[in-house]
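Because discrete structure vocabularies remain unfamiliar, we first show an illustrative case, written as a sequence plus integers encoding its fold.
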Amino acid sequence: MNATPRWLDPDQKAAWDSFIRMQETLMGRLSRLVQSDSGMSASDFIVLHNLTETGGGRMRVLELAKLLEWEKSRMSHQTTRMMKRGLVVREECPEDARGAFIVVTPDGYKAIAEAAPIHVEHVRRLFIDALTPNQLSTFGRLSQRVSDHMLNQLD
């Protein structure tokens, strides 16, 4: 790191502050709405969503943690809570004794199937409908650019 901080200029600070406010407000509202409408926490939702959409209902614990940018301990605590409610099960990996899979149960599939339409309607109402198609396309490209940039940065 540089010895002298590279402070944000007023335009950079305004852009950053606006992004943070938008992101925190959007995620907070979505979390509260999904919780009140489905009884599912935002963490439950994101785990089930990623397991069913990305992992085909089954994913290695560490792979899922990496995908979500979660620490191993957070992933473990979350999946333990979900196992107690019957949303997922843990299966040992036959090829790797240290590895394990998180697998969506029928109750987990039912929960995400019920919550997803509610979630997407809130996403549409709070986010998609606020932007024109051109703005949405630009936002998507800019978000991808920042994500790609972070992949090239050291933590």
Remarks:
- The CA atoms of residues 7 and 72 lie 33 Å apart.
- The two ends are 12 Å apart (CA to CA).
